[in-house]
Design goal:
Helices cover 32% and strands 14% of the residues. With 399 residues, the chain is of the alpha/beta class. The strands form 3 sheets. The chain has an 8-stranded parallel beta barrel, surrounded by 7 helices. Strands 1-2 form a two-stranded antiparallel sheet. Strands 7-8 form a two-stranded parallel sheet. Helix 1 runs parallel beside helix 2, helix 2 (86-98) crosses helix 3 (159-179) and helix 6 (253-266) packs across helix 8 (293-302). The longest helix is centred in the middle third of the chain and has 21 residues, at 159-179. 54% of the residues are buried. The structure holds flavin mononucleotide and iron/sulfur cluster. Flavin mononucleotide is lined by residues 27-30, 62-63, 106, 187, 189-190, 240, 274, 284-286, 310-311, 332-335, 363-364, 367, 374.
Length: 399
């Protein structure tokens, strides 16, 4: 039986018109289990099924590309840029539903300057010609390989290219809706392209996409409005952003709170609050836990749509964040890599059996630096779910 102090995690939640069984989401987490063309593999199906069947009420599928035009680094990740991606995405939405969760997918218009290595001659672009920053001080040992990268000066995007990216987001949005997903999360966090546009550090444009805060936010607002218009008001469109960039001259919380209000007004159905960029990598992937809750609570006070944030391991802290009203939902990333049964173990009142992430940063090195499928020392089954009969996708029993 669920311990009383964890009960708040198992109340249902409405996002827009969509009901979600509990307050636990798999945060979007790039695990690189695909092929070079962004296709869904059997391993992806089994990995995501295991997270849904483990009891998370919502599975947010990782960073997914919408165009192959510009440099894009996550190796072996997912794509929604082409009709060829549709059959795989349809199976992916299906197995997440079989596991008992709602399925969202995170769409990314580009990595911008943080693509670091331009691929196959594709151009490195950004809002302005400001190159990526890389955190140098206090970087976890497993992540030091990122310092081998030499950030290049990007080419500022032309206006018509920005419009082209808006169209690519809509085409991908239509595709994932057709595939059966329940919602989309627009990736504006962690210093990727949209984060660069909202950033006073990276965005030095002089046109209507730069200068004032409203101009810097414009690209993001346009994408939200475009998606809502194309997909219908009942289809969930959320937005993830870093409420503090964690770099000198970067976006700070007070402006991020104002931006959150504008996102809600533009039609965002929920907000996912995160932190940091590559210049402040340990903000994105904190060593501790519960480090982002305060920022999320500040955003939640300013808006009326549901708000979630990541960075929980302990069910006590996760449940406290929900029961005290800091967030509506917790989004677990490394906790569910280490143990997909985290929600079930908490619901069944046996949280002491959870396998805890030990913050070795191996998964981050695999995903962000080496571009190989992630592995985890505390969960040797991660990445091998396709061989585990207990993780194999099962359709619901016929009634
Ligand atoms: C291996 C790995 C890959 C990640 N990929 C994504 C991603 O695709 N999109 C995203 O918004 N955040 C991504 N993140 C960040 C997580 O969603 C989360 O915000 C961060 O890890 C902090 O939460 P945690 O303490 O629960 O891990 C990733 C994190 C890890 C560890
Ligand atoms: S133990 Fe290491 S590899 Fe596993 S989830 Fe935690 S940081 Fe990632």
């Amino acid at each position: 039986m669920t311990k009383p102090q964890h009960q708040a995690l198992f109340d249902p939640l409405e996002i827009g018109k969509l009901s979600i069984a509990n307050r636990i989401a798999l945060a979007p987490t790039h695990v690189g289990m695909g092929d070079e063309r962004g296709m869904v593999t059997d391993q992806y199906l089994c990995y995501y099924y295991a997270r849904a069947a483990g009891g998370a009420g919502l599975v947010i599928v990782e960073i997914t590309g919408v165009t192959g035009r510009y440099a894009f680094a996550p190796g072996r990740g997912l794509g929604a840029a082409s009709g060829r991606n549709l059959p795989g995405l349809r199976d992916l939405a299906r197995v997440i539903h079989w596991g008992g969760a709602r399925a969202f997918i995170q769409l990314l218009p580009g990595q911008g300057v943080q693509a670091l290595v331009p691929h196959q001659g594709r151009p490195l672009v950004g809002p302005s010609d400001v190159p990526a920053l890389l955190q140098k001080e206090d970087l976890p040992k497993a992540m030091r390989g990122i310092l081998r990268e030499m950030p290049e000066r990007p080419r500022p995007l032309e206006r018509d290219e920005i419009h082209g990216l808006r169209e690519a987001m809509v085409r991908a949005g239509v595709r994932v809706k057709r595939a059966g997903f329940d919602g989309i999360e627009v990736h504006g966090a962690h210093g990727y392209l949209l984060g660069q546009f909202t950033s006073p550090y990276f965005n030095r444009r002089k046109d209507e996409y730069g200068g004032t805060p409203e101009n810097r936010w414009r690209f993001s607002m346009e994408i939200i409005r475009d998606l809502k218009e194309a997909l219908g008001k009942d289809f969930v469109v959320g937005y993830r952003f870093s409420a503090r960039e964690g770099i000198e001259g970067g976006l700070e919380l007070p402006e991020a709170v104002e931006m959150a209000r504008a996102l809600e007004e533009a039609g965002a159905d929920y907000l996912s609050v995160s932190r940091g960029c590559y210049g402040s990598a340990t903000h994105v992937f904190p060593r501790g836990e519960d480090e982002i809750t305060e920022d999320a609570a500040a955003v939640r006070k300013a808006v009326s749509v549901p708000v979630m944030c990541p960075n929980f391991q302990s069910p006590d802290l996760a449940a406290k964040a929900v029961s005290e009203g800091s967030v509506d939902m917790v989004a677990l990333s490394r906790a569910l890599l280490a143990d997909p049964l985290w929600p079930t173990k908490v619901r069944e009142g046996r949280p002491e059996q959870i396998r805890r992430c030990k913050r070795c940063y191996g998964c981050v090195r695999d995903a962000v630096i080496d571009h190989v499928p992630v592995r985890c020392p505390v969960n040797p089954a991660l990445g091998f779910e396709r061989f585990d009969p207990g993780c194999f996708p099962r359709p619901p029993a016929e009634s």
